[in-house]
Amino acid sequence: QVQLVESGGGLVQAGGSLRLSCAASGRTFSSYAMGWFRQAPGKERDLVATISWSGGFTSYAESVKGRFTISRDNAKNTIYLQMNSLEPSDTAVYYCNTPSKAIPWGQGTQVTVSA
């Protein structure tokens, strides 16, 4: 069974940057499309970025387009989310999973953006 471990979150001022990582263990996920989700307090868990199994195709929610970049390193079984120009509205717990949410959720990583 695949296990997901997210890391890289923290507290940052508005306009700052963070790079999140999601490492998968237990089974290679190189053949799967993957995504980053986020959940703010009291809100649904939303998909914000996806990447194809090869990394050749990416898509983003409108709210993060132009600011976030998803990437992957299949040799390391890891996906990344580079977040630039962060805004207070980006504050949330960030999770990775397949777009269909097929893998048990990891613990997520908290991102807090101060004004």
Describe this structure in words.
This protein is mainly β and 115 residues long. The chain is built from no helices and ten strands. It starts with a strand and ends with a strand.
Quick overview:
It is built from no helices and 10 strands.
Approximately how much helix is present in the residues? under 10%
Q: Main sheet, how many strands, which sense, barrel?
A: 6 strands, mixed
Q: What is the structural class?
A: mainly beta
From N to C, what is the helix and strand string?
EEEEEEEEEE
Number of β-strand runs = 10
Strand order of the largest sheet: 2-10-9-4-5-6
Overall pLDDT score: 95
Low-confidence segments, ≥5 residues, pLDDT <50?
none
| Amino- and carboxy-terminal Cα gap | 40 Å
The global form is globular
Tell me the radius of gyration: 13 Å
What percentage of amino acids are in beta strands?
over 45%
Give the helix tally: 0
What are the salient characteristics of this protein?
115 residues, 0% helix, 50% strand, 6-stranded mixed beta sheet, mainly beta, 10 strands, 4-stranded antiparallel beta sheet, globular
Write the layout of secondary structure elements.
Elements: E1 3-7, E2 10-13, E3 18-25, E4 34-39, E5 45-51, E6 58-60, E7 68-73, E8 78-83, E9 92-97, E10 109-114
Parallel strand pairs: 2-10
Antiparallel strand pairs: 1-3, 3-8, 4-5, 4-9, 5-6, 7-8, 9-10
